[in-house]
Structures are given as structure tokens and as C-alpha cells.
Amino acid sequence: MTESTDQIAEIEAQEARLVFTSFTHDDAWELGSLLVSLAKERALPVTIDITRGEQQLFHAALAGTAADNDQWVARKVRTVRRFGNSSFLVGLRHRATGTAFEDRAYNDVSVYAAHGGSFPVTIRDAGPIGTVTVSGLAQA
């Protein structure tokens, strides 16, 4: 296996493992609050966003972020909604074919971003119903 296929397999395994039985407003608040606490401990300039369907359940922009981070969040969320997988996995899969996500004519980079940061909220036996997104960190 190559590094790329190893990463793809790792992210696919994470997506298969990180599945909820339900996801409520309170769950979004608890998860978002935990992510904010971790980001503050590490002095990370990030924006954190959690959605269920079209509803934004949690949003926090920490010190050092800008309006651009909100645009990155929106583009990453659209990528997860369109492809049903994490924004990082979508980018990895495209690169594994030898073509960058951005080079595909049907992937408008003003609408989508296949970079790390947005992960599907998946309900067991139902599939993806939302997103958890972070913007502001360097691409791994």
C-alpha cells in the first residue's frame, strides 16, 4: 500500500467507527464545547461549526480567526454533504486518481473545498445527517 491508500483506509475506518445512535442539539453543544475547550488549551485560532441537516447547531469563532474561516467552513460542509464523506477523504481519493479535486471541472472551488476539517455526523442505520467542521489549522 502507498501512503495515500494507507491514509484513505485510515480515514474510511474512522468514518465507519465514529457513528452515533442519535445526535441532538445537546450533543452538538457538548461536542462543540469540548472542541472549543481543546482549541483554547492549545491556543488554536479556529472556527468550529456543527450542523444537522441545514440547521447550524453550534458555531464558535475563536481569537485569531477571520470571516475567511466561515467561508472555508461553508465550502467544506458543502463537500461533505455532496460526497457523504469527510472533506479530507474526498481530497485524498481525488489525488489518489492522479487528479486534484480542484482540477475536476465539476468541482467549483468557490463552492467546495476538499481539504481537512469537515467530518460527517453519521447516525447508525441512517447515514450522514450533519457535519462537524473546523477551520484555521494547516492542512496535514
Write up what this structure looks like:
With 140 residues, the protein is of the alpha+beta class. The chain has one domain: Haem-degrading domain (Beta-Lactamase). Helix content is 42%, strand content 20%. The chain is built from four helices and four strands, in the order H-H-E-E-H-H-E-E. It has helices spanning 3-17, 25-41, 67-83, 87-96, and strands at 47-52, 55-61, 118-123, 127-135. A four-stranded antiparallel β-sheet has the order 2-1-4-3. Strand 1 and strand 2 (55-61) form a beta hairpin. Helix 1 (3-17) runs antiparallel to helix 4. The radius of gyration is 15 Å and the shape is globular. The model has no long low-confidence stretch (mean pLDDT 95).
Q: What secondary-structure arrangement, pairings included, does this model have?
A:
Layout: H1 3-17, H2 25-41, E1 47-52, E2 55-61, H3 67-83, H4 87-96, E3 118-123, E4 127-135
Antiparallel strand pairs: 1-2, 1-4, 3-4
Please tell me the total number of domains: 1
Strand composition percent: 15-25%
Shape: globular
> Which blocks of ≥5 consecutive residues have pLDDT under 50?
none
Strand line-up in the sheet with most strands: 2-1-4-3
Overall pLDDT: 95
The CATH architecture designation is 2-Layer Sandwich
- What percent of the residues sit in helical stretches (DSSP H or I)? 40-55%
- Can you count the helices? 4
- The sequence of SSEs as H and E is HHEEHHEE
Largest sheet: 4 strands, antiparallel
Radius of gyration: 15 Å
Q: CATH topology, which one? A: Beta-Lactamase
Number of strands: 4
CATH superfamily: Haem-degrading domain
| Distance, first to last CA | 19 Å
Which CATH class is shown?
Alpha Beta
SS class? alpha+beta
